[in-house]
Each structure stands twice: as structure tokens, then as C-alpha cells.
Amino acid sequence: MPITDADIGRDVGIFYPDLVNIYGCEIKTGSRIGPFVEIQRGSIIGPRCKISSHTFICEGVFIGAEVFVGHGVVFTNERYPEATNPDGSLKRDGDWELVETVVGDRASIGSNATIVAGITIGEGALVGAGAVVTRDVPPYAIVAGCPARGIGDTRQKRARSRRPSAAKPLQIA
To answer: Which of 157, 108, 158 lies closest to 133 in space, CA to CA?
Structure first.
């Protein structure tokens, strides 16, 4: 699988370059790309993102800074996909409508989520593993399920989960 015609920034880690399909896209500084990832032309991956293995990022997807994309996440870029035109000929570039998707800075998308074309996932939002996102996700929202529904706010959950200062070492007498 090739890496061709891609604008790859400084300190981008593609640890298994023979196991990715990356072409015509932009990957900004400091991002990490796992094996078996496809990133198509016209997509942009922001700085310091982590794109986990087996993820598919199609044309028209724009991912902000410091975004986590879990294993096996799939983005789509057409609302009504069809294989053929009305005359029976196979559809090619220009025979379908590209619908863009935007992922805001510091959002997180859990493993095996599906992001339907035309969605905006807001800054700091969290998409649960396996969710099917069919509508916009507001900033800092937590969504899960099929279809994905709001179940919380990352600002509240993350504030509770912050670890206190370093624990003291266990003393065995």
C-alpha cells in the first residue's frame, strides 16, 4: 500500500508505512498514524492527532488539532451512495456529491464508530465506541449508541477523572 502525493508535516509518525494507504492528503506536524489506515485525497489531519489502526478517512474529512481517532473508525462522504448512474454505467468522480465532515480540536472518537457524511463533531466532544453518528455533535458533548445520542458533557466527566497529585509509594513494614 502506498504513500503518494501527501503533504506530511514534521515529526509525523507512520510506523508501518508499507501497511497504510495515504494519498493526496495533508497530515500536520506531530500526528501518529497506525497500520492499515487509509487517508484519501483532500483530507486534512490536524497537528498532534492520533489515528489508530484500521481507520478509513475519506475525501472531504477535516480533522482538527489533537484529535483521537480509535481503531476501526469509518467516515463516509456521500449521503445516498449508489454504484451506478441511471444509465447503468459505474459512477466515477464527478458522478456523485461530496459531502464534507469536520471534527473539532481535541475531540475523541471511540473504536468502530461510524461518522455519516456531513456531520460536525464539536471541539472537545467524545463519541463512544461503536456509535453511529448521524447528526452534529455539539462541543464537549458525549454521545453514544446507534444512532448516537447525547449522554453527558466532557467538561464535567474530565474534571471528575483528573488524578490527584502523585500517590505516595507503598511502604511495606
So the answer is: 108
